[in-house]
Amino acid sequence: MAENDESITIEKCPLCGTTHRYSLKVQTGIVMYNILSMRDVPPPKVRTFVRFFACPVKGQDYRATFRLLESPSAPIESVDVAGEARD
Amino acid sequence: MDNPKDDKGTQVVDVQPLTPHDRALYEAGKTMLVESVETGRKFCETMIGVATGAVAVFVALLGIVTPKDHVLTVVEGTRGIIAGVLFLLAALCFVFGYLPRKSKLSLDLPGDIEKARASIIAWRHTWGWVGFGLFVVGVALAAYAAFCMIGAQAPESGTDMLLRPPI
Lengths: 87, 167
Prior knowledge:
Number of strands of chain B: 1
Number of domains of chain B: 1
Low-confidence stretches of chain B: 1-7, 158-164
Number of helices of chain B: 4
Radius of gyration of chain B: 28 Å
Structural class of chain B: mainly alpha
Largest interface: A-B, 23 and 18 residues
Structural class of chain A: mainly beta
Number of helices of chain A: 0
Helix content of chain B: over 70%
Strand content of chain A: over 45%
Radius of gyration of chain A: 16 Å
Shape of chain B: elongated
Strand content of chain B: under 5%
Mean pLDDT of chain B: 84
Oligomer: heterodimer
Mean pLDDT of chain A: 86
Largest sheet of chain A: 3 strands, antiparallel
Shape of chain A: elongated
Strand order of the largest sheet of chain A: 1-2-5
Order of helices and strands of chain B: EHHHH
Number of domains of chain A: 1
């Protein structure tokens, strides 16, 4: 299992109307492929997630639906919101 | 709303305030998160009483269905003992689940708290299920032993002699 850092930008917060950027912790698994079956590797697919985000201005929560690209060799096991992204 | 993709392929599809249903789900989630440690402990606490009480209920039940002055055979006695032992073993498992556990954690490290919490929940979950499994097997065996005793022969008495068909 591996943990990757991703980021997501909410262009217009439904509560305060400003832009927020958050960090995501994406846990991925490991898939072992038989080298002989490499031609059968499926293409990456899009997965949709719904998470609650906290508006740093209003101090309230809102929900956002977003999509992540899932690689066939690293299936996404969990996505956690790690708070505001510190650039 | 059409949001551009982030540099790593994250695309926002929809953003909206929490609905009343979302808020209720969120509160339910918080309650589950906080109370999940206690749930296992309360289950083990309750089942200790149930498992030990089952021994007394089983003995009373056997007393009801066993004919008066009937002498238990080896098989009948073994069945009864095994059922009782299973109840006691189940109670022991629930005691293990109920026992307080010691762990070190720092409130400054959320990872520590999460690890300790997960460990306690897993411990109680395991012992709860092992104990429950033993309890269910004990109930099945106790019921079987009790039903077998219904057909047990009473020792010969005057009444029985009158009911026998004439030779």
